[in-house]
Specification:
The chain has about 725 residues and is mainly alpha-helical. The protein is elongated, with a radius of gyration of 38 Å. Pfam families: KBP_C (PF12309).
C-alpha cells in the first residue's frame, strides 16, 4: 500500500497547471518549449533577449523566484560591488571574492527571471514592476560581463553578458542589435552608432560602454571600439555636474582607452590628444597640492608619479616630432615640476614611492628638454645654410603650432609657465628669425638642461646615457657654430664640440664589443669635428691667398692644418676599424700611431657592413681620401715636410681608387638593396673619387717638380 502526501500531490498538480498555462502562453507568443534541451525556441521576429532562461522556466513551473524591492536590490548590489572592486584577501586566490560576487549575482538574476516568467503566465503583475525587474537584470548582467573580464575568462563571454544581457535595457534593443551585428561581421565594418541615452545609472552606462570598447579592442575590432568609447564620452559630456562627480574615474578610463585604441588605428593625432586629456585628469584628480601650489601631499596623492611623468615625456616626444614646440616644452616643464615637488616631499618625510626611479625620471626629462631644444637649433642651422646657398625653404615641412596649448597643466600646477618665447613660435616665425643671437638662446637652454642631466647620468654606471648626452652637447656646439660669422669664434665652438666628447675616448674603458654602435657614432663625430676645424683653417688661408696671390703659408699655419687633418683621419680610421673582425686586423695596427693607421690596409680583412651603415662606412673612406689630399708642406725635417706631403697625396690617390672599387663591390650581384642605397646616396662621391684619382698624379708631379702648395678642397 502506497501512502501519498496530500500536500505533495497538491503542489505537483499546481506545478503541472502552471506548466500547461505557461506552454499555452508561450504558444500564443509564437514560442515553443523544447523539452529535450530545456530551452525556448523563438518564432520569427521574436526578441530573444527578453526571454527567460531555461532555468527560469523550470523554476517558474515549480512556483519559485522572487522580485526585489529597490532597497533590497541596492543592498545586494553594494555587497557584490564591494567584493568585485575590493582587494583580494588571499594573494594565492585573487579571484575568490569575485567568484563569490558572481555566484550571488547569478542567484539574483535567476530569481528575477523566474518570477518574471511566472508573471508572464499569471498576467497579474503591474507593468512597472516588470520593467523595473528587467532593468535590475540588466544591471546584474552588466556586472557579470565586467566580472568575466576581471577573472580573465575572455572578451567573448563578457560581451555575451554586456551586449545581449545589459545593452538592450541600458540603450535600447536597436543599439544592441547593431553592436552584435558588427561584432559578428567577418570584415571590419565601419560602425555608425546612433546618439544614445539611458534611464539607468549613468556611471554604470558609461562603464558598460567602456568595457564593451575594451573587449572589442582585445578582439582587434578597433573601429567599433572607438565608436563605443566615443558614445561613452558623449554620455559624460551631456551629464549634469552632480552626475559627472559620480563618474570622474570611469570617464578618465574612457579617455585612456580612446588614447590606446586610436593608437592601434594608427591615428597619432587623436591618440596624443586623448593621452593629453587623460594625463591632465589624472593630475587634477589624484594630486593634492598646497593652496599656493608649492607643496605636494605625497601621502594623500594617489597618482603614480613615475608612470605619469613617463607618459607626459612620451607626449612631449610626439609634439616635438610634429613641430609643436611649445606644447612639447610645456609637457616637459609639467613633468619636471611635479617630479620635483614629490622629491622635495621625499626629503622631508618617509614616502612609499621609488625615489631613485623618480630622480632618473627628472634626469630623463632634462635630457628630453635638451633634445627638444636641439631640434629647434637644427632647424635654425639648416635654414641658415639654405639661405647662404640661396635655396628657398618650404613653409609646410612642420605642422603649424596652435595659438593655445592643447592641454595646459599650469591650471593645476600653479606658477608653471607656458614655455620659452622661442618655443612659442611656429615654423614660419622661426625660420624668419634665424640669427646667431636667436640660436644662442636655444643653445643656452639646451646646455643648462644637459648640465642637470649629466649630474645624474655619470659615466660610471650610465655609459650609454652619458655618451649620448655628451653627443647632444657636441651636436649643439656644431649647429651653433654654423650661425657664427667670426672665424675665431667658430673655431672655438668646434673646439668645445671636440672637448665635449674626446675625453671619453682618451679615458678609455669602453668595451668595443658591448658598445660598438655607440663607439661608431662617437669616433665619427670627433672625426667630423676635427675635419670641420680643418675646413675652417683651410678657408681662412684660402681667403688670404685670394687677397694676395703671393701669400706663402706660414709653418705654424701648415702645422695646425695638418694636425687637424691627421686627428680627423685618426678617428675616421678608428670608425672603420670597428667594422673589422679582430682576427682579420692587420698586424702592428695601432690607432695612436699615424704611420700605421694612415696607411691602414683596407683589404687586409673582411668587413661586415649592413645596408643602413654602408653610406657611413664608404663616407669615412672618402673623407680620409679628401683629408690626405689636403696635407700641406710644413717646412719641418730634412725635406721640410715635402716627403710627408707627397706620401699623403699618394695615399689619397690609392684611397680614392679604392672607394670606387669598394662601392662597386658592395653593390654587386645579388645585392639589390645595397646597390639602390649606393645609387641614391653615394653616386656623386663615386664620380668625384674617379675624378680625383685621375687628377692626383698630376698634382703629385707638380709638388715634386715645382714644390707647389695646394690648399683648396679636393
Amino acid at each position: 500500500m502506497t501512502v501519498t502526501d496530500p500536500a505533495a500531490v497538491e503542489k505537483t498538480e499546481q506545478g503541472n497547471a502552471r506548466a500547461e498555462k505557461m506552454l499555452k502562453q508561450l504558444g500564443e507568443m509564437g514560442l515553443e518549449f523544447d523539452a529535450a534541451t530545456g530551452s525556448v525556441v523563438p518564432g520569427e521576429g521574436i526578441d530573444i533577449s527578453s526571454l527567460p532562461s531555461s532555468v527560469a522556466l523550470n523554476g517558474a513551473a515549480d512556483g519559485q523566484g522572487r522580485f526585489y524591492s529597490a532597497a533590497e536590490f541596492m543592498k545586494v548590489i553594494k555587497e557584490c560591488d564591494d567584493l568585485l572592486h575590493g582587494p583580494a584577501k588571499d594573494e594565492k586566490k585573487p579571484f575568490q571574492e569575485k567568484y563569490k560576487a558572481r555566484e550571488e549575482l547569478e542567484k539574483v538574476r535567476v530569481n528575477i527571471e523566474t518570477k518574471r516568467c511566472l508573471a508572464m503566465i499569471e498576467s497579474n503583475t503591474p507593468k512597472k514592476t516588470l520593467l523595473d525587474a528587467q532593468k535590475m537584470v540588466a544591471r546584474v548582467e552588466y556586472r557579470l560581463g565586467t566580472t568575466a573580464l576581471a577573472v580573465e575568462e575572455g572578451s567573448g563571454k563578457a560581451l555575451e553578458h554586456l551586449v545581449v544581457g545589459a545593452m538592450p535595457q541600458f540603450f535600447g534593443q536597436d543599439v544592441a542589435d547593431l553592436v552584435e551585428k558588427i561584432e559578428k561581421e567577418d570584415e571590419d565594418v565601419e560602425p555608425n552608432l546612433p546618439e544614445i541615452s539611458t534611464s539607468l545609472p549613468l556611471n554604470e552606462a558609461v562603464d558598460l560602454l567602456n568595457t564593451c570598447g575594451a573587449a572589442n579592442a582585445n578582439r582587434e575590432k578597433f573601429k567599433l571600439s572607438v565608436q563605443l568609447l566615443k558614445a561613452s564620452e558623449r554620455l559624460y559630456d551631456t551629464a549634469s555636474v552632480e552626475e559627472k562627480e559620480k563618474m570622474e574615474d570611469v570617464h578618465t578610463q574612457t579617455l585612456f582607452f580612446l588614447a590606446q585604441t586610436w593608437g592601434h588605428l594608427g591615428d597619432a593625432s587623436n591618440s596624443s590628444l586623448y593621452c593629453a586629456k587623460t594625463t591632465y585628469r589624472q593630475l587634477r584628480m589624484n594630486v593634492v597640492l598646497s593652496e599656493d601650489g608649492k607643496e605636494v601631499n605625497a601621502k594623500e596623492s594617489s597618482l603614480d608619479v613615475e608612470d605619469w611623468t613617463r607618459n607626459v615625456m612620451t607626449l612631449a616626444n610626439y609634439y616635438a616630432s610634429i613641430g609643436m614646440h611649445q606644447q612639447a616644452e610645456h609637457c616637459l616643464q609639467a613633468a619636471g615640476h611635479l617630479a620635483a615637488l614629490f622629491l622635495k616631499q621625499a626629503d622631508s618625510e618617509d614616502t612609499d614611492f621609488d625615489i631613485i626611479g623618480l630622480r632618473e625620471n627628472v634626469a630623463q626629462i632634462d635630457r628630453k628638454r635638451a633634445e627638444t631644444y636641439l631640434g629647434i637649433l637644427n632647424l635654425c642651422a639648416e635654414t641658415h645654410m639654405y639661405k647662404l646657398a640661396g635655396v628657398e625653404t618650404g613653409d609646410d615641412e612642420v605642422a603649424e603650432q596652435p595659438k593655445e596649448l592643447i592641454v595646459d597643466y599650469g591650471k593645476e600646477l600653479k606658477g608653471l609657465g607656458k614655455g620659452s618665447e622661442f618655443m612659442k613660435m611656429n615654423y614660419k616665425e622661426i625660420i624668419s628669425s634665424v640669427s646667431y643671437e636667436f640660436a644662442r638662446k636655444i643653445f643656452l637652454a639646451a646646455n643648462a638642461a644637459l648640465e642637470r642631466a649629466l649630474k645624474f647620468y655619470v659615466f660610471d654606471g650610465f655609459v650609454t646615457d652619458h655618451i649620448d648626452l655628451c653627443l647632444v652637447r657636441a651636436n649643439a656646439y656644431g649647429r651653433l657654430s654654423l650661425l657664427e660669422s667670426d672665424e675665431k669664434r667658430k673655431q672655438a665652438m668646434q673646439l668645445k664640440r671636440v672637448q665635449s666628447i674626446e675625453p671619453i675616448m682618451e679615458a678609455g674603458g669602453i668595451n668595443e664589443e658591448a658598445f660598438c654602435g655607440l663607439l661608431k657614432t662617437l669616433v665619427h663625430e670627433i672625426g667630423a669635428a676635427y675635419m670641420d676645424m680643418h675646413e675652417l683653417k683651410s678657408e681662412r688661408i684660402e681667403g688670404k691667398i685670394k687677397k694676395d696671390p703671393t701669400y706663402r703659408i706660414k709653418a705654424v699655419e701648415a702645422k695646425k692644418m695638418n694636425d687637424f687633418a691627421w686627428k680627423a683621419m685618426r678617428y675616421f680610421t678608428h670608425f672603420l676599424k670597428l667594422y673589422f673582425n679582430k682576427s682579420n686586423m692587420p698586424k702592428g695596427f695601432d690607432i695612436k700611431d699615424k704611420e700605421t693607421w694612415g696607411e691602414l690596409c683596407v683589404e687586409a680583412g673582411k668587413v661586415s657592413v649592413e645596408v643602413d651603415e654602408v653610406l657611413g662606412y664608404l663616407g669615412a673612406h672618402f673623407k680620409i681620401a679628401r683629408l690626405l689630399s689636403k696635407i700641406v708642406q710644413d717646412w719641418e725635417g730634412e725635406d721640410l715636410g715635402k716627403g710627408r706631403m707627397v706620401k699623403a697625396l699618394e695615399g689619397s690617390f690609392e684611397r680614392f681608387e679604392y672607394v670606387g672599387e669598394l662601392a662597386e663591390g658592395l653593390g654587386g650581384e645579388g645585392r639589390k638593396d645595397m646597390k639602390k642605397k649606393l645609387e641614391e646616396g653615394f653616386a656623386q662621391q663615386v664620380e668625384l673619387s674617379k675624378e680625383m684619382a685621375r687628377l692626383l698624379p698630376v698634382k703629385i708631379s707638380r709638388v715634386i717638380q715645382f714644390n707647389q702648395q695646394f690648399v683648396g678642397a679636393a
